Amino acid sequence: MRSLIHVKNNMKRYGYIYIMVFVLSSMFFYMVDDVAAKGLQVGEYSVEYDEARPADTNENGTNDRTSYYKAGVLVFTAYDENEDGKDDLWFRYRADGAVDLELADSGTDGRPDMITEVDASEKAEMIYNSGARNRSPIIWIVIAIIVGGVSAWFVAKKYFNERVQKLIQGISRRRE
Amino acid sequence: MRKNTYTIAGAALFVFFMAGAVMLFSEPALAEKAVRTVKFEAPDIRDEFCGAYIDYRICKCARHDEMCKDIGRTRSVASFILNTRYAAHVAKLRAYFMKGCITAGGKYSADACTYYEKTEKEKSCLPPDFEANWVKYSDIDERIPENERSFEAQQYAKGWAAIVKNTEQIYLLQRDMEFDRLMRLEVRQYKDALVKNIKTNLLKSFWRLAWVTYDTAVGSSLPVKKEFIQGGVALGQTYSKLFDAGEDVVVQIGGALNIVRSLTPGDSKFAIDTEKARGKFMSFGITGTFSTLENLPNPDGAYAVATSLFGEIAGYALPPKADITPEEIAILREQHINKGLADEILQESYRINRARRLEAERLKAENEAMKTSMVEWGNKEKDRAQDAIIDSCKK
């Protein structure tokens, strides 16, 4: 019982110190981790880096390229080709410095919608392009016909009902 | 009112039937009789393409969402790959079909090849070599002034000229892409030697790069659009930053570098190769028939040309004072590795080459569309030439 009281008193006395140490050490590990390795997420691809170097390649006062390094090795490059503040072209590099992946954003949302893989001999093959889905125009024509047909039916139904109502009213008046 | 309506309707019907009778009973125009039509059939994607021309697992993943993990793809990516490769395969087969149709004397249009039989009158009027050499009886002749050619021949000539010009552009773009790839490889090897301080490799790579850079920088007479060259900088000039950045580098290695930099456009093997390629394409006049499309230099041959050209230029003899002192090596390491200049050049090279690649793909797609259009204009010009001969024969 005494030992429990002793522990309780110690906790009251040193509890604040324990909490401070815990909070400070958590902050320290978080900061160290943040400095040691950062992550960049581009679409479904993530890249770890520890240094980012912006550059203004066309010397117009706006940074349009960011080079990402990890342990002094170039791992990723991001370009803002249209200089709208959002990156729209990315290259990922292998350990030997050659590109193995190319991502591009044809829109303005900063998310890649074109993915091209580059093999060891630097032959490129586009493996995804969300803007190039083969949609058959027939589907759109069918959809348009259905939508048009349903709309026409509703309009005709309303018009038909009104006409019928008027006809019935007319007949009733004549009978009267 | 009713009588007038019936009268007008009756008159309209009478005119309609009379016109029909005239058309039915008038002397039929001389026309070849279509004997046989063969339609182009695309292969079945499941039975004739999957497994034979593409990894069956891509098909499984794309169509059934199976085995996606085995190939490390999502279903949407597998679907895109499948559809793209299938479309390319069908386009190739269609091109073979079209070529076969024309060679066999048929007419290709809208994915079908129609073979015609001539009437007796046509056979007697037409020269015996008309089928094989109809071009010489047509207006597809560069000796005829452009405004005097038939409309069909003018359209054919426009299409042909555009294809030749595009093919030249594709050839040079592909040559430059391959050349740039070899330069990037050299830069990476140079970086590696610089980091590891392997002097023999470093010297070799440094001077190879110097020769290639300055030969292409002075010899760049690219007929391609300036969009493919960053800020108007042509192939080679991007790499010249390796040798110009920082006065120290120039001052220290300046003597030997100046020998390299004294290359003139006339000495540039790159410039000579570009002129040779352009000359080859310009020699194709408008008299080319469909078979000449096959004789056009294959743009894919540009890769071998680039490899050979790179080897020639990089193999220039070393300047008299080719050695680099340890102090100079330290300067190079500081500029090219620590300050990231070599990486900067590699990044820009990839960016520019992406633009070249996309343009080459666009031009190839344009050429494929134009070839089909040219075939159709060729058919129309052949018919016009044939009709002209038969008409003059009747007279």
Structure overview:
The complex is a heterodimer of chains A (176) and B (395). By secondary structure, chain A is α+β, with helices and mostly antiparallel strands. In chain A, 42% of the residues lie in helices and 28% in strands. Chain A has a seven-stranded antiparallel sheet, with no helix packed on it. Chain A is flat. The N and C termini of chain A lie far apart (105 Å). The relative contact order of chain A is 0.06. In chain B, 68% of the residues lie in helices and 4% in strands. Chain B has 395 residues and is mainly alpha-helical. In chain B, strand 2 and strand 3 (112-117) form a beta hairpin. Chain B is elongated. The two termini of chain B are 53 Å apart. In chain B, helix 9 crosses helix 12 (269-282). Chain B is built from 16 helices and three strands. Chain A binds chain B through residues 53, 55, 57-58, 65, 67, 74, 77, 79, 89, 91, 96-99, 102, 115, 122, 124-129, 132, 134, and chain B through 73, 76-77, 80-81, 83-84, 181, 184, 188, 191, 230-231, 340, 343-344, 346-348, 350-351, 354, 357.
